[in-house]
Amino acid sequence: MFSTVERRLAYLRTDMGGAYRWDAAKARWLPLQDDESEPSYMGIESIAPDPVDPDVVYMAAGMSARMPAAIFRSADRGVSWRKTAVPFAMGGNEDGRGMGERLAIDPNAPATLFFGSRHDGLWRSDDSAATWQKVVSFPLPGLGKPARPRTTHGGLSFVLFDRARRGRIYVASADPGAQHLFRSDDGGNDWHAVAGGPSPDLLPVKAAVGRDGVLTITYCDYIGPNGIKRGEVWRYDPAKKAWHDVTPVKGAAAVPGGYMGVAVAASDPNIIAVATVNRYQGGDTVWRSADAGRTWQELSGTSTRDVSATPFLDFDKKADFGHWIAGLAIDPFDANHAAYVTGATMYATNGFNQAGTMRWAPWTKGIEQTAVITLLSPTGGAHLVSGFGDLGGFRHDDLTVSPPRVHLNPFLTNTNSLDYAGKAPAVLVRSGNTHKPVVPDTSLAWSGDGGTNWQPLRVPPSESTDGAPPPERTGNAAITVSADGGTFVVETARPILTRDRGKTWLAVQGLPSRVRVTADKADPRRFYALDFAANHLVRSDDGGATFKPVASTGLPVDLSGARAIGREAANPLVATPGRAGALWLLVGSDLYRSTDFGERWERATTGIAISRYGLGKGAPGAKWPALYAIGQLGATKGVFRSLDGGAGWQRINDDAHQWGLRLRMVSGDPRQFGRVYVATDGRGILYGDPKEGVK
Hints:
This protein has 695 residues and is mainly β. 0% of the residues lie in helices and 35% in strands. It has three domains: 94-362, 7 Propeller (Methylamine Dehydrogenase, Chain H); 372-603, YVTN repeat-like/Quinoprotein amine dehydrogenase (Methylamine Dehydrogenase, Chain H, 7 Propeller), CATH 2.130.10.10; 604-688, no CATH class. It has a five-stranded mixed sheet, with no helix packed on it. A four-stranded antiparallel sheet has the order 4-5-6-7, with no helix packed on it.
């Protein structure tokens, strides 16, 4: 969203990675919430730059209906924030997250703000968002929170002031009903429904008003981004009380999908643009009109995308225009400068009003808005290999640039597990899933060159024991590789292994179904797992062919706290690189260690509650590898390090770097002492090194 009072000032909201501000002097986006400690506040429902003071900005934050929600206000462009917890729920990462903006500031009385909530009607503040009151005169009080946790309402989809007409406000509802657009002409005291427009089964999702007072509104049959099958674009002229259907493609020529992004040029209200959403036949696109919607130019076919700075977008050697184009904006100070947001990136152009081919390029420097499921740092090759949600994952040869090597052949949208061979680190294996309930081909792959190239790995057809699709068809079958890279163990319903890259398969004996397997990083004969039914460790001493119980001592009586729940969960049992039989196990929040192949264990930690952990190269002369943990020490949550086997811990992040504490995995680097990698849920991968002079 561009500021209307200062050139080259813009803000961006994300569904789980917080908010950003464009810093023109630094030519990069700056994250505005890295100091945030509440996970819910990284899901931004709406953002509103002040229409008078360029230093002032507001945002509504709340991940979902059953998580905390607040209105943030800043007088220094988001460098610091004041927060007001609010009683109305939000859904920054729920369906309908592309609608809006729900938060709006009165341009003639900038201390007054309105917020259109999902579940509880319209709210108002007259003290710069410090306190909020429900607008009881608004006709729709709200439907209340949905009964089921994973459902939601669209609620009030946008609040829009007409800057040129004092006191005029529009509010739209994306809930089912006979009326969807409402107007006030006295600053929000009295309201009336605006008659006319499309059929009531279409829902208004976004709108823009030109300096001529005419609204351009995009409509969908669902709040999206998925599930939209139909949409239209309408314009409403309040002076004439007239509606006009200006949908770019109508009738038999229309393909399934809707319209969401919308923008009007500040310099000329006849220049408007709209974006399609969820249009899978032909892909989404942007339409531009220079005559108020009477004729349209479709832009995807007459544009180019330069993705040289972000090469992973070029999956098929021709980056597509994008999908789920919910956000679309025209710079109010430069109508040639426009941008749109897709489900994968944000594109911008400086030729929006120019004839001929339009060049777009990612406008993303500084943005890391990705969910990272897993990562590993091998003992050779690239120092980092990742598994992402939606993007599959990468081999990271250079941590300072966008990685070109996305995991392909097969491309699995989510990579759920990764492993490498401890003594042959060029051998990697992965498992994952697609956005479909069942993976069309295979959910498994292996690489012999450190993740540069991959080969699909297919297992024999099997049947699930519970009637559901077998785990290898859904991405639930994790894969593990032996230390020498010669054996792959796959956690199918009945575990199997291959020693010839999938040509032949053998049933694994003694290994329970649906448990995570860990390979020793130095001894290729050894594999380990937990048998939760029998409540003990099992080990293979013959390269995975058979597993037998280990008469372990020192472990808790109940090992259920070590169960990895879900296909994206990190394995609680980790082997130490370069040391045969050296194991670590997280049970609940306590860490245990063994140096003799799991025979004897001792509790390694006291005082710290760990949720995720990883190993790195030990300090010079140290007995133990460096331990890195996401956890809580006393009242402090964060990222911690131990150099003495878990006895003492030091926090290695600080209050300015908390990233919403949405942290999914942590690992050290086995080759570089002090290097740590953190997988976040919304802020990409973070890596850190000790400050100079700090051990």
